[in-house]
Write a structure and sequence with these properties.
Layout (H helix, E strand, L loop, with lengths): L14 E3 L4 H10 L4 E6 L6 H12 L5 E4 L8 H11 L2 E3 L6 H10 L6 E8 L5 E3 L13 E3 H10 L4 E4 L8 H13 L4 E4 L8 H11 L3 E2 L17 H14 L1
Parallel strand pairs: 1-2, 2-3, 3-4, 4-5, 5-8, 8-9, 9-10
Antiparallel strand pairs: 5-6, 6-7
Helix pairs in contact: 2-3, 3-4, 5-6, 6-7, 7-8
């Protein structure tokens, strides 16, 4: 992963976050010395062209962006993949069932700098995860499988990062540890804990992944750091997150 666009603090941590607009994005990324990746939600666009144009404006000012689905909406999987294929943004979020497709699409389009993640979900059962996170499969009975098998399936198609959502903050640390260890076992270098993460609870989440041996950690920190009145992601909250990162490593 050394040739990719994302900057990791101490080669370990990068925060995935949202920003209201380009100015807000520039401010928050600067506040954390570039160790953050701004998410661009594909759900907000009416067309692929609109999304591509929007992403390219941001790319003039920051090296890496994260193309997102929008609240994990599996129906946005193709929009996210297509926007990424025209922009090589550095990072794209994807459901379990579409990760392999997206990797192939990016490769065919010559996009060599973008990490594709795959979404798996907690089940409340230690060592078991839900992989039916796709547009159609998510409407059926949950496909609950052994975490080692799920992660090995992603390794089979070349996925380099696993998104674990919904974490509910620090309520699922034992389950997260099992996912992290499964990633390390097959050399998937990055893990992305997501859901309910705040400045107050992020430390044990990151430490759980580090202690399991994960090479890279990208926690997604969204609504908890957005000012409710202005809609802006708070620079002060970003600085607090940065302080926590410095405490850990």
């Amino acid at each position: 992963m050394e040739s990719y666009k994302i900057n990791f603090y101490k080669d370990k941590i990068n925060i995935n976050l949202l920003a209201k607009d380009l100015q807000n994005a520039r401010e928050v990324v600067e506040a954390i010395d570039g160790y953050a990746t701004v998410g661009i939600i594909s759900k907000q666009f009416k067309s692929i062209d609109e999304g591509v144009e929007y992403v390219k404006k941001f790319q003039e000012y920051m090296p890496a962006l994260s193309i997102g689905l929008g609240d994990g909406d599996p129906n946005q999987w193709q929009m996210a993949a297509e926007i990424a294929s025209y922009t090589d943004p550095g990072h794209v979020n994807q459901v379990f069932t579409a990760a392999g497709y997206t990797l192939g699409l990016l490769k065919a389009k010559g996009c060599s700098k973008t990490i594709v993640n795959a979404l798996i979900s907690p089940t409340g059962q230690l060592g078991k995860v839900n992989i039916s996170t796709g547009a159609i499969s998510s409407k059926e009975k949950a496909a609950i499988v052994d975490v080692d098998t799920a992660i090995a399936m992603l390794k089979d198609v070349g996925v380099e990062s696993v998104k674990y959502y919904h974490m509910e903050g620090d309520k699922r640390l034992a389950e997260l540890k099992a996912v992290a260890e499964a990633c390390v076992k097959v050399n998937i270098p990055m893990i992305e804990p997501t859901g309910g993460i705040t400045v107050e609870n992020i430390k044990p989440i990151i430490e759980t992944c580090l202690n399991a041996g994960c090479s890279k950690i990208m926690p997604h920190v969204y609504s908890s750091i957005i000012d409710k009145s202005s809609g802006l992601t708070s620079v002060n909250q970003i600085k607090r997150l940065y302080d926590v990162m410095k405490e850990i490593i």
